[in-house]
Amino acid sequence: MKLFLDSANIKEIEELGSSEYVYGLTTNPTFFYEEGVKSTEEFLSILKDIMPDKEIQLEAMGSVDEILKIARDYVDSPPGTSCEHNIVSKVPFNEEGLEAVSILSKESIKTNVHLVYSVNQAVLAARSGATYVCPLMGRFDDSGQNSSELLGDIKTTFDNYNIETEILAASVRHPDHVKQALLLGVDAITIPYKVFKLMMDHPLTERGTRAFENHTVGQK
Questions:
Q1: Which residue segments constitute the domains of the chain, with CATH numbers given?
Q2: Catalytic residue at 90?
Q3: pTM higher than 0.85, yes or no?
Q4: Pick the catalytic residue: 54, 90, 110, 155?
């Protein structure tokens, strides 16, 4: 089970990025805009000091040629300038994306096909050579459908046909989304900072901690 931090906030990344339970980082252009990130290269140069050995997933969008160039540039960066050996290109699900993923997979460049909302899309992405397929739980629930059912159907299909592409659950809104994904046995989840913090809390844990502290006051 891989747990990713979903963020572009440097303070959040500094706090959680080096944690043993965080496998890597996922981010997107919306996060970059919100955090004022202007340069991907500069962002990566910061990450290499915070989480040098962890996987980083970055967006690659556009035409087939544009996706190929971005993905190749990620892995061809000069040594020491980024986390070049651990970068996965996030490619939107569409015909151009699948064509690019098919080419990149033959070059052993890792990809994550995201914006996946059906079993059919997941299978097409997997057969195109995607390293990950990425259903978005919160956005799927917003449409009035059941994201747990979607994840379960994709998991069953992949198990039925021994598909090695990993399922990465995204658009996680609350700890119960994490729990649902874990119970379904998906391969990875990307989790916002605030949800990671909520995962650490439980009223009984807090109550028990206070009780232990009260009982140990004054002890040598």
A1: 2-216 (3.20.20.70)
A2: yes
A3: yes
A4: 90
